[in-house]
Write a structure and sequence with these properties.
Layout lengths: L3 E5 L5 H6 L4 E5 L9 H12 L5 E5 L15 H18 L3 E4 L13 H18 L6 E4 L13 H11 L4 E6 H6 L5 H5 L4 E6 L14 H11 L4 E4 L8 H26 L4
Parallel strand pairs: 1-2, 1-8, 2-3, 3-4, 4-5, 5-6, 6-7, 7-8
Length: about 270
């Protein structure tokens, strides 16, 4: 199976991304009315399922007012939401749902860090049980310290995920956050069996191919991992023009082809 490339965007960009020949779109889960009217949810799910480009991944797991750790959690609400999230993602055809949600998992100043970890582990454990058999995997995303104070590296995410030890819970690696935290790309190789999804950007969290991120090293590492999952561009803002978008997608396509060639060379014993 070849690596698929996609872009994190709203459904309003689906047609444009389909025309640009991307493999999929990654949409925000929290934009679905999972806590609202069932008819509205059914209508939106139908529109996602009929999208011009497949919705293979979803991000922005938690609504803005949901807390996963700290004194203001609402476990019953979380369980209802998480169950419906897995059900909705499965109906849409998404394979991965990303749990970033830095605000939802930020540990309050007066709260013990270890206690917050246990709360998050409880959330992950519930998802592992409820999503089993849906075909949807939750990818825990490390975020840089400017966005949250809980899980800031791939190694930390793997440490928590390993405690759940269920194939429904895996880890996302984000090139931008790794750069912000000075986490070496070799970490990807170390934890290759845990990584189910990858996000990329470039300098300033702009479109891939526009900055000075070490993409040659990234491509070599991903090839060495034997990674065959999805890679989504997740940028701080939309490219400034259609031409800029197409240039970045061309960069990502060439990146994917180069990773494939590197992996093929390695497997044939000529590396």
């Amino acid at each position: 199976m070849m690596i698929q490339i996609g872009w994190c965007a709203g459904m309003q960009q689906a047609g444009m991304l389909a025309e640009a020949k991307l493999d999929y779109i990654e949409c925000p889960l929290s934009s679905l009315p999972l806590e609202g009217n069932e008819a509205a949810l059914a209508e939106q799910l139908a529109s996602y399922a009929e999208s011009a480009i497949p919705v293979r991944a979803m991000n922005l797991f938690a609504p803005g007012d949901m807390r996963l750790v700290g004194p203001d959690t609402d476990p019953d609400r979380f369980r209802r939401y998480a169950y419906k999230a897995g059900e909705a993602a499965s109906k849409i055809g998404a394979k991965v749902v990303v749990l970033g949600s830095g605000g939802a998992r930020k540990v309050p100043d007066a709260w013990e860090h270890q206690r917050a970890e246990q709360q998050l582990l409880g959330c992950l454990s519930f998802i592992a049980e409820e999503w089993r058999g849906t075909g949807v995997t939750l990818a825990l995303e490390p975020l840089n310290r400017k966005e949250t104070n809980l899980i800031n590296s791939v190694s930390e995410a793997v440490r928590l995920t390993a405690q759940i030890n269920d194939p429904a819970i895996r880890v996302l690696a984000d090139f931008y956050h790794m750069e912000e935290e000075n986490e070496p790309l070799s970490t990807l190789m170390t934890y290759k069996d845990w990584i189910v999804h990858i996000h990329i950007a470039d300098t300033g969290r702009l479109a891939p191919g526009t900055g000075v991120y070490p993409y040659e090293e990234f491509m070599a590492t991903v090839a060495a991992m034997g990674y065959k999952g999805m890679i989504s561009a997740e940028c701080g803002r939309w490219p400034e023009s259609d031409e800029a978008l197409h240039d970045s997608i061309a960069f990502m396509t060439a990146m994917r082809d180069r990773i494939t060639d590197m992996a093929r060379t390695k497997s044939s014993g000529h590396a």
